[in-house]
Design goal:
The complex is a heterodimer of chains A (286) and B (473). Chain A has 286 residues and is α/β, with parallel strands linked by helices. Chain A contains nine helices and 17 strands. Helix content of chain A is 33%, strand content 30%. Chain A starts with a strand and ends with a helix. Classes of the chains: A alpha/beta (286), B alpha/beta (473). The complex binds flavin-adenine dinucleotide (FAD) (2 copies), iron/sulfur cluster and FE2/S2 (inorganic) cluster.
Chain lengths: 286, 473
């Protein structure tokens, strides 16, 4: 049983879950993900492993409620169980000694960079995390990121915390001042990852991104997750999800993420109606 | 006992019985099974057609050597329960095989009355017997010998793995199946559609294995969740059987293949079958392509299944199979081609796609080329060659690529010392033994995409060999 042991409501429809999944927790490595299915006839969705504990057999996930499946998940409570959790999937992040890492996270991307930054720090690499949100209240995982990195820099769109602007605003400045860095890692919305790739392209700093195409099985069986890296087709679930940012075709990724937009919208509309009807019934019952 | 008195001549006079089917126009709108099965009377009459050969060719034609005349004899006598027992001696999944085996190339192809007359409908009888047993609700669990204390891990819950697991459990071994997906059955649940193989049949077979004491752990990807070495060294498994199938979709490598609307058959079929996308959005959350005209590229069973599945989606009006050779070279079962034609699938033969065209990231059409047949190639089939200047655009909203599957490298990559050939298939001997001590393999992962019955046969061979190994240890 993949029981939810803890659930916290963070900012901006992002929820933190601690879930019982001993098989995954035992093998998880930084940069990997799981695929979940909540209910019978539910969809399979990929979610990054933000943390795990092989001893207690638990994993920690941060999920943003953006569509039907993630919204259903946001309505689940501690004590409820997910139907399926499979993983760990994907190739772990390559963590090498003697490098200075600059990691940028936006949205759930902060949860995704967390274990990678921590892995670098643990082997003695210098780690700078740049995390961002629209405003101070919407920023997640600040404390966890401080614990996992040597230094945390913050950007908010409205300037309510740290630098006013985007995470890329900070990176740009670091590049112009020639601050030391060997590896840049960016995880978040595609626009952000693409912007980071463009910034570092000229300076030639090794830059990695973790791609989030639509997935289904997560084992290389369907090809739904295909992305172009250089001139080769790669299956993000088994060949990635981490790739050389300078070679990724981000425009293709954006286009492919919209593959089911009309259907997803339809699905969400029907679901919203159901939720409203349910609410009305509950109010009526009062 | 008047039946026994039937002379061979009398028997040969009985015409082969057809199975009633759902009307094409009706079934093209639903996902229910197409053939409706024999009644006991028709089955017994069909069974009377069998000559009970002393040296039955059909048995030799069957990859697992089912005792065909014996089970048919029991059917003729109305002894359906005995017939079922006889079938199950060699075939663990008769309800599945009766539906999906290419009998026309196997047992029925060599049946002696098949020369002048039509062969005995062995497949239909097999299906009848298995269904009768399931409906009767009397499923006999064979006596399981005392536990041997030996543990076997089976990787993959497809026909190879299921068969191997069942046989080993019956010998008293402690068997666990590890399956990557959330449901057991392999291609039987994610590939072959409901209208050809109802999923409750597969579920019943999987339940039967559980009753034999087999443990089934889904959501477990060997290589990721656990490696073979960990299973053997840390988790105490004495032997491992790999039945991981041929699950790596081939793409065409032509321009435009990453446009939205271009799918591998694996993705399309899994969305519809395993994830029940045909009842999206009300009863399933997994979306499927919503195109009015769908092209399916390829000519095998997977192409036929994709085309017939697409045809049943309520929003799809037209489905075209695009195949580069002619009807005669199509590897799909004749019955499937026939069913597709009846249901209104269009066949664009001697036609090959050269590129996918689109607008704003979405597929709008396929540029195709006409082909003609030239000299025979390595496979003995005449090689299609393009006709110059014959390009045309086929307007479609979705294209499904069904040109075959390779082997998934996940297990090979994480298992040192496991030898594979240049296609990534695991090398195993006639008993399924691989280059690694204690590790067997069988089914599509060894021989490449093949058939359900061959996968089952390999699972069976391996089980016997594993049993022998465990007893000698
Ligand atoms: C490797 C990987 C790691 C991810 N990690 C996280 C994470 O840690 N936290 C988090 O909140 N989100 C993560 N995502 C994104 C998450 O999977 C999607 O938000 C989720 O699937 C949306 O499902 P939905 O039904 O709620 O929304 P939908 O309405 O179905 O879709 C909304 C959008 O989500 C994307 N999406 C839909 N289905 C899938 C799918 N099966 N696979 C991938 N993307 C999809 C599409 O771009 C779509 O436009 C990750 C995605 C990938 C590929
Ligand atoms: C659409 C389609 C239609 C077909 N129609 C017919 C037909 O009509 N008649 C016929 O005889 N044959 C047909 N075939 C072929 C037949 O289905 C296969 O030959 C047969 O299923 C092979 O069995 P298998 O047990 O080797 O593998 P599969 O059935 O492929 O099962 C392998 C299982 O292993 C699992 N797996 C893979 N990797 C791992 C891992 N690392 N860890 C854990 N589990 C793993 C997979 O998820 C899968 O469930 C068809 C195939 C397809 C795709
Ligand atoms: S070859 Fe035909 S007639 Fe002879 S035993 Fe087999 S099914 Fe019967
Ligand atoms: S999700 Fe199916 S191949 Fe990657």
């Amino acid at each position: 049983m993949f029981t939810i042991l803890e659930k916290n409501d963070l900012a901006a429809k992002v929820y933190r879950y601690v879930i019982n999944a001993p098989n995954v927790a035992r093998k998880a490595k930084a940069g990997q993900f799981v695929i979940l299915r909540l209910i019978d006839d539910g969809e399979r969705i990929p979610i990054t492993l933000a943390d795990w504990d092989p001893i207690s057999g638990t994993i920690t996930l941060y999920v943003q409620a953006i569509g039907k499946t993630t919204t259903i998940m946001s309505q689940m409570k501690a004590g409820d169980a997910l139907l399926d959790v499979v993983g760990p999937l994907g190739i772990p992040s390559h963590v090498e000694k003697g490098k200075t890492l600059v990691a940028l996270g936006g949205g759930f991307g902060i949860a995704a960079i967390h274990p990678i930054v921590r892995a670098h720090k643990r082997i003695g690499n210098r780690t700078i995390s740049i995390i961002g949100a629209r405003s101070k209240e919407l920023l997640i995982m600040e404390d966890e990121m401080r614990a996992a990195s040597d230094e945390v820099r913050i950007a908010t769109d409205d300037g309510s915390c740290g630098t006013k602007g985007f995470v890329t605003t900070i990176l740009k400045k670091m590049l112009t001042t020639h601050e030391a860095m060997d590896v840049v890692l960016a995880i978040g919305p595609v626009v952000m990852m693409k912007a980071v790739a463009e910034l570092t392209r000229a300076s030639d700093v090794e830059t990695l991104v973790s791609l989030n195409p639509i997935m289904m099985d997560g084992t290389g069986m369907c090809g739904a997750c295909r992305v172009m890296v250089g001139d080769s087709v790669q299956f993000a679930c088994v060949d990635g999800p981490e790739f050389d940012a300078h070679k990724v075709d981000f425009d293709l990724l954006v286009a492919r993420q919209k593959m089911y937009s009309p259907q997803e919208k339809l699905s969400m509309e029907i679901f919203d109606k159901l939720c409203k009807a349910q609410e009305q019934r509950e109010t009526a019952a009062w | 006992m008047e039946k026994i008195k039937l002379s061979n001549k009398d028997r040969m006079k009985i015409p082969r019985h057809d199975m009633p089917e759902q009307e094409p126009a009706v079934r093209a709108q639903n996902f229910l099974e197409v053939p409706l099965g024999f009644t006991p009377e028709t089955a017994m009459e069909e069974a009377d057609r069998c000559l009970q050969c002393k040296n039955p060719k059909c048995v030799a034609g069957c990859p697992v050597n089912v005792k065909i005349p014996d089970f048919i004899f029991h059917v003729a006598m109305g002894n359906f329960s005995l017939a079922a027992q006889t079938l199950k001696e060699t075939n663990a999944l008769p309800a599945v095989c009766g539906r999906v085996c290419p009998q026309e190339d196997q047992c029925e192809a060599v049946c002696v009355i098949g020369g002048k007359n039509e062969p005995v409908a062995i497949g239909r009888l097999e299906r009848f017997v298995a269904d009768w047993e399931r409906a009767s609700g009397v499923v006999t669990i064979p006596p399981i010998p005392a536990a041997t204390g030996k543990k076997v891990a089976i990787i993959g819950a497809g026909p190879a793995g299921l068969t191997c697991a069942g046989d080993l459990a019956k010998k008293g071994h402690d068997v666990t199946i590890y399956e990557a997906l959330h449901k057991a059955g392999g291609v039987l649940v994610y590939g072959i559609p409901e209208f050809r193989l109802p999923k409750n049949i597969v579920d019943a077979e999987v339940d039967y294995l559980r009753k034999l004491g087999v443990k089934i752990e889904c959501d477990f990807v060997v290589g990721m969740t656990r490696t073979i070495d960990e299973l053997m060294e840390e988790d105490g498994f004495d032997a491992v059987f790999i039945g991981s199938g041929a699950g790596l979709p081939y793409f065409m490598g032509i321009p435009g293949e990453n446009l939205n609307g271009v799918y591998s058959a694996n993705e399309f079929l899994t969305r519809v079958n395993l994830m029940k996308g045909f009842v999206f959005p009300n009863l399933s959350d997994t979306p499927v392509p919503m195109a009015t005209h769908v092209a399916v590229i390829g000519g095998g069973n997977t192409a036929m299944d994709s085309a017939r599945t697409a045809k049943r989606l309520p929003w799809t009006e037209k489905v075209s199979i695009v195949y580069r050779r002619s009807l005669a070279e199509m590897p799909a079962r004749k019955e499937e081609i026939h069913h597709g034609e009846q249901e209104g699938v269009e066949f664009l033969l001697l036609t090959n796609p050269t590129k996918f065209v689109g607008a704003e990231g979405w597929l709008t059409g396929m540029e195709c080329q006409r082909m003609e047949l030239g000299e025979p190639d390595a496979s003995g089939r005449r090689k299609p060659v393009p006709v110059k200047g014959s390009e045309f655009i086929l307007e479609v909203g979705a294209a499904i690529i069904a040109i075959g599957n390779g082997s998934n490298p996940l297990i090979n990559k994480t298992t040192p010392g496991l030898t594979t050939n240049k296609y990534g298939n695991i090398i195993a001997d006639g008993f399924g033994k691989t280059s690694r001590e204690g590790v067997w393999a069988g089914g599509d992962i060894v021989i490449g995409a093949a058939t359900v019955i061959k996968a089952m046969g390999a699972g069976k061979e391996a089980a016997a060999s594993i049993d022998e190994y465990l007893r000698s240890k």
